[in-house]
């Protein structure tokens, strides 16, 4: 036991002469080093806190301001217009406060006040600049003079080396759209999905809402937007995630895959050791705020604060997110046993080789799980209320409480899986099985409440299962990109596949968590497992690697890759079901403080017109120019909607908040009820790629990520996540339910593939016509 090992360092003996203390020099050394590390960490955080607090100025600028004011005083010039003299008169005169000291102190106080005023002014100027969004609506490759001037001013006021959280105080608040604009855009979005009679009824209901209930709700919502940092995010987290009582496994959690083609080592413990060490490096930089801001345009980094040391705690009516600071241990699950692993030794992070040693000890451990321990994590996979009640009844005291606290207060959760997964082109459905394993596993071998669970397979492949309430997928993707690049290009492995570095044989052994789970609790665990298993068995997944062409060829057609893919999804959906449906595409609103996501309604009047023309069976020889014109109109419409969503002019978050406000005010709104009950039968999301640019994909084409995915949102619909990898690959992650006779993930994947090829064929045919017309002109 680790506790017993550590206790050897401190012993005492009671003798007739008193108490004889024995202190281990080695233990005292580790205590000293831990203290030094802790104080260094505090000093760095304090320094970075000051740098962030005075941004966009710098601490040295204060000294410049003081010197400048003092210089003017010696030159007998008063830049304060008498304010220094006023400050001087308020200071007391004493033996310690001479007239000269009063003058100097007054000048320093004035200079400090002037410096702080300049900081506030610079922040408001930067906030005003960041509120300008016209640049995002300009055509790709074209930049107006106003945008060039704006970009230059942003760079000038942003300072030289901004830290991760430097821009937080300068980011604008998310604006509340007008009710008229939201209702108009909503009606436009549902027009292609309703017949004339249904649309006219919806128009009447919407106009009644706009006239009667909306004005009062909007006033309160505007009031909230003035008071709260973000008028959406707190309600979104609470009502969309934390108040949900159904299982979060599959329904809410999402996954991220490893590198698609490469496995740096097949040694499970070594791969886990390198990656855990890389995560600790990332966490250290995150806690100190030393990561660079993500993009050229500042984005909110608020969600990143809760990446580590975070757990979703179940409750009867609502869950809550518990975030702690600087947790120093990790909990590992392997073959039904839970182990506590310390991440620090002698005041420093464990080296990769030391972590490999600890993980190998767990893999070599042959002890059997304790009664009820094997499927214990199924409690986090089932319904929330039974888990909350079980937690209060069976895990509130004794060894169960201590062990559960070890899990919930850990930095994150690691599963050393006893299966092998990953993409293998020679194996049928290898990507499908890999995704299902990451999404739900065996329903009891991931702790679904942790901010994320790192999964290390026995063949060296990795993956992450992430809880959704605390952050969105791009945040996890940022960390994952850093970790994989650090693992492969900075840490590396020996020729035998082990972690580099010496093996420290003096590490304390890992501690196996102890449980005393009664039979009643074991029945609750089994019930949760059966609920989760039914959900997992119903997930129909298909991974589709589209490598015929990619972003490079699409951009040559002067089309947004995202718009191209979204129109292909609309075409695939129509061919799959013979009808259109309400379509969800996630867009970020992180250009605003504490922004999360907004919905882009991808099924539009323009996209349906293009799809119907593409599949018009009455036209034997379709007009390519006509189809391309429809395509470009639909793509432009989609791009405009995406830009509106990013700049705070979306539809759905506004309507969602109006609905929540109506509940608080006990206002019954048939319109809002209908809007919020409409199912998203096609839910889509693009996974961002290369947020950090740590790996040159052109130089290392095989070191590309496979993206990630999520479960189906509607019982009779599809969930589609896609990642645009480099110039020549697009990976689709498609999920649906076996229980629905209307869906088939593999069939939908084939429809997507064919839709992509058919749209591309339009451009090829048009290019051929252009070539032929040029040749004809030359011959004439």
Describe the protein in words:
The protein is globular and about 100 Å long. The termini are far apart. By secondary structure, the chain is an alpha+beta fold. A hairpin with a 2-residue loop joins strand 1 and strand 2 (18-23). The protein is built from 24 helices and 20 strands. The strands form five sheets. Strands 13-7-6-10-11-12-3-18 form an eight-stranded mixed β-sheet, with helices on both faces. A six-stranded mixed β-sheet has the order 14-20-19-17-15-16, sandwiched between helices. Strands 1-2 form a two-stranded antiparallel ribbon. The protein folds into four domains: 10-51, no CATH class; 56-133 and 146-158, no CATH class; 179-239 and 541-777, 2-Layer Sandwich (Chloramphenicol Acetyltransferase), CATH 3.30.559.10; 249-537, 2-Layer Sandwich (Chloramphenicol Acetyltransferase), CATH 3.30.559.70. The active site is at residue 468.
Q: What is the helical fraction, as a range of percent?
A: 40-55%
Structural class: alpha+beta
Task: Report the average pLDDT across residues.
Answer: 88
How many domains make up the coordinates?
A: 4
The CATH homologous superfamily of the largest domain is named Chloramphenicol acetyltransferase-like domain
Describe the strand arrangement of the main beta sheet, using strand numbers. 13-7-6-10-11-12-3-18
CA distance, first residue to last residue: 91 Å
Instruction: Tally the helices.
Output: 24
CATH fold-level label of the largest domain: Chloramphenicol Acetyltransferase
**CATH top level label of the largest domain:** Alpha Beta
Quaternary structure of the protein? single chain
Task: Give the strand tally.
Answer: 20
Molecular shape: globular
Fraction in beta strands:
5-15%
Query: Describe the biggest sheet?
Result: 8 strands, mixed
Question: What is the gyration radius calculated from CA atoms?
Answer: 30 Å
Any idea what the CATH architecture of the largest domain is? Answer: 2-Layer Sandwich
List low-confidence stretches.
1-10
């Amino acid at each position: 036991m680790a506790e017993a090992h550590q206790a050897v360092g401190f012993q005492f003996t009671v003798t007739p002469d008193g108490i004889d203390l024995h202190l281990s020099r080695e233990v005292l050394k580790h205590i000293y080093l831990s203290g030094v590390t802790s104080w260094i960490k505090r000093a760095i955080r304090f320094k970075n806190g000051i740098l962030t607090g005075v941004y966009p100025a710098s601490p040295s600028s204060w000294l410049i301001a003081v010197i400048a004011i003092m210089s003017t005083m010696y030159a007998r010039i008063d830049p304060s217009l008498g304010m220094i003299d006023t400050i001087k008169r308020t200071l007391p005169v004493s033996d310690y406060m001479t007239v000269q000291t009063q003058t100097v102190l007054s000048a320093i106080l004035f200079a400090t006040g002037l410096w702080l005023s300049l900081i506030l002014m610079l922040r408001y100027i930067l906030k005003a600049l960041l509120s300008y969004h016209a640049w995002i609506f300009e055509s790709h490759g074209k930049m107006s003079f106003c945008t060039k001037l704006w970009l230059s001013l942003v760079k000038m006021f942003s300072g030289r080396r901004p830290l991760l959280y430097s821009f937080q105080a300068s980011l604008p608040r998310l604006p509340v759209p007008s009710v008229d604009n939201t209702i108009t855009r909503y009606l436009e979005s549902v027009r292609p999905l309703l017949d004339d009679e249904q649309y006219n009824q919806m128009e009447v209901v919407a106009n009644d809402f706009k006239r009667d209930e909306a004005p009062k709700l909007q006033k309160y919502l505007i009031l909230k937007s003035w008071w709260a940092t973000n008028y959406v995010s707190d309600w979104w987290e609470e009502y969309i995630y934390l108040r949900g009582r159904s299982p979060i496994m599959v329904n809410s959690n999402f996954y991220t895959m490893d590198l698609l083609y490469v496995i740096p080592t097949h040694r499970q413990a070594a791969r886990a050791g390198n990656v855990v060490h890389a995560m600790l490096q990332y966490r250290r930089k995150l806690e100190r705020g030393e990561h660079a801001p993500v993009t050229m345009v500042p984005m909110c980094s608020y969600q990143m604060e809760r990446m580590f040391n975070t757990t979703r705690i179940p409750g009867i009516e609502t869950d809550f997110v518990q975030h702690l600071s600087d947790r120093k241990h990790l909990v590992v699950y392997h073959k039904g046993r839970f182990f506590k692993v310390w991440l620090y030794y002698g005041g420093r992070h464990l080296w990769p080789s030391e972590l490999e040693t600890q993980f190998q000890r767990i893999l070599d451990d042959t002890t059997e799980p304790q009664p009820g321990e094997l499927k214990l994590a199924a409690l986090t996979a089932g319904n929330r209320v039974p888990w909350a009640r079980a937690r209060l009844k069976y895990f509130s005291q004794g060894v169960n409480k201590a062990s559960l606290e070890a899990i919930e207060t850990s930095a994150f959760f690691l599963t050393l899986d006893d299966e092998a997964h990953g993409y293998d082109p020679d194996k049928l459905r290898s990507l499908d099985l890999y995704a299902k394993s990451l999404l739900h596993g065996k329903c009891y071998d991931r702790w679904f409440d942790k901010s994320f669970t790192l999964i290390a397979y026995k063949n060296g492949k990795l993956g992450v299962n992430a809880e959704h309430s605390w952050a969105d997928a791009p945040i996890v993707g940022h960390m994952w990109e850093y970790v994989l690049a650090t693992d492969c290009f900075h840490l590396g492995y020996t020729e035998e596949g082990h972690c580099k570095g010496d093996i420290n044989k003096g590490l304390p052994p890992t501690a196996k968590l102890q449980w005393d789970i009664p039979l009643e609790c074991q029945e609750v665990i089994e019930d949760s497992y059966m609920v989760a298993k039914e959900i997992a068995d119903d997930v129909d997944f298909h991974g589709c690697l589209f490598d015929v062409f990619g972003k490079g060829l699409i951009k040559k057609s002067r089309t947004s890759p995202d718009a191209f893919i979204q129109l292909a999804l609309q075409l695939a959906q129509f061919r799959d079901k013979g009808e259109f449906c309400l379509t969800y595409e996630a867009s970020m609103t992180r250009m605003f403080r504490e922004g999360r996501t907004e919905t882009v309604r991808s099924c539009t009047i323009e996209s349906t017109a293009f799809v119907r023309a593409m599949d018009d069976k009455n036209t034997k020889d379709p007009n390519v120019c006509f189809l391309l014109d429809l395509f470009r109109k639909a793509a432009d419409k989609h791009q405009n909607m995406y830009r509106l969503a990013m700049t705070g002019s979306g539809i759905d978050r506004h309507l969602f908040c109006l609905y929540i406000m109506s509940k608080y005010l006990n206002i019954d709104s048939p319109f809002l009820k209908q809007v919020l009950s409409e199912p998203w039968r096609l839910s889509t999301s693009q996974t961002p790629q290369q947020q950090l640019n740590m790996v040159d994909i052109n130089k290392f084409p095989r070191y590309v990520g496979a993206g990630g995915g999520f479960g189906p949102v509607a019982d009779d619909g599809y969930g589609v996540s896609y990642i645009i990898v480099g110039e020549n690959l697009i990976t689709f992650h498609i999920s649906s339910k076996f229980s629905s006779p209307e869906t088939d993930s593999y069939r939908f994947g084939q429809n997507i593939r064919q839709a992509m090829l058919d749209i591309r064929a339009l451009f090829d045919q048009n290019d051929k016509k252009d070539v032929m017309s040029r040749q004809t002109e030359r011959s004439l």
